[in-house]
Amino acid sequence: MPDDYSRMRRVLGLYSFLKIPFVQGIEDWHVDARRTFERYTRSNVDDWPKVRYEINIKNRLTSSDVSRFLSNRDSLGQLQLQPDAVSQMFSTYAPVFTIEDSGEFDRVGMVGFTNEQQVQVDVAQPTVYTHLAYTRFEGKTLPQLVYIAWFPARPKNGVSDLLGGRLDGIIWRVTLDDDGMPLLFDSIHPCGCYHMFFPTERLRVIAAPKKYTEWAFSPKRLTQRPEDVILNITVQTKTHYLANVAVDMEGAIGDVQSYSLKPYNELRSIKTAQGFVNLFGLNGIVKGSERGERFLLWPSGIRSPGAMRQWGRHATAFVGRRHFDDVDLLDKYYWRR
Predict the structure, then answer these.
(1) For 170-223, what is each residue's pLDDT tens digit?
(2) CA 16 – CA 20 distance, rounded (Å)
(3) Is the CB of residue 137 less than 8 Å from the CB of residue 326?
(4) Please, is 274 exposed, middle or buried when counting C-beta atoms within 10 Å of its C-beta (0-12, 13-18, 19+)?
(5) Where are the alpha helices (DSSP H) in the chain?
(6) Cα separations (Å) of 216 from 176, 187, 188, 243?
C-alpha cells in the first residue's frame, strides 16, 4: 500500500535541510520524556487528582490459555482466532489507565456526533475501542491487541499553542509472542505522534544505522515479566502524554471508573440523527481535529500533522519513514535475546 508521506511536500518544504532541526526537536522531547518517566517512577506525583479507569468485565486468561489459542494456525502458519477467544484476550491484557484529571478534557468516553455533526466524546460512558492487528517477527505472524481511548480535547495553553485542539487520545498496543506471553508494548497518540516502545526482557534493541533518523524510543524497559499481571498506564493532564508504565498495584487510592470495550470498526459507522457517519471521513482524518502544528511540520511530508486519523494512516516519524502498522517494525528495531 502507498505510505502516508508525500515526496512532493518534502521537496517543496526543503525537507533535506529541515530534518536537522526536526531531529533536534525529537531529541529534546526524548530528554523531557525520560525525565518525566524517572520522576513518576521514583515517587507518587500528586499535583493533580487522578482517576483510575479499569475494564468493567474481568474475564482473564492465563498465558497457557492464550498459548493454546495461538497454536491454532492454518497450513500457511496464519492464526485462526475465534471471536470468543479474541474477546477474552482483549479482556486479559486490557490496561488500567491512571489519568490526571483537571477537567472534562481528561476523561475517557464514547465517540459520537452532535446534531450539528460535530464530533463529541460522551465522558458519562467510559469506553475503550479495540482492534485486532497482526505483525511479522522472525518469520512468524504474531497478534497485536490494540486499545484506543478517546478524550474530548487537548486544551490549548494560550492562543500560541499549536498542539491543542478538539479530540485527543491514547493508543496502546500489546504484541504477543507465539507462546502467549507479551513480547512488546508500544503507544502513540491517534495523530501518530509520540511513538514510545516498551520492550520486555525477551528483546534487545538494534542500534540505529544512521544519525538523522527516528529510531525506537524507549523511555522505560519493563524489567518484570508481565505474566498474569496488568499494566497501569499513567497519563498526564491536558497534554495526555504518557508519564509512566508499571505493573498495576491493586487497591490504588483515588476515584475509580469502569470502562467497557467496543470494536474500533464501530467508529467507521456511527449512528446519528442524519444517518450513519464515518468518524474518519473520506481521507482517514477526523474533521475538526486539525492542529496548528500542521503549518510548521508539513515539510515532513505528512498530511495535516497533529490531526486524529484512522488506523492504517498513522505515520509516526517526522525524520525518515515509519508507520504504526509497518509489518516489519519489530524486525527493524529488535532482536530476540
Answers:
(1) 999 999 998 889 999 999 999 999 999 999 999 999 998 877 788 999 999 887
(2) 8
(3) no
(4) exposed
(5) 7-12, 15-42, 63-70, 83-93, 294-297, 329-333
(6) 18, 11, 12, 17
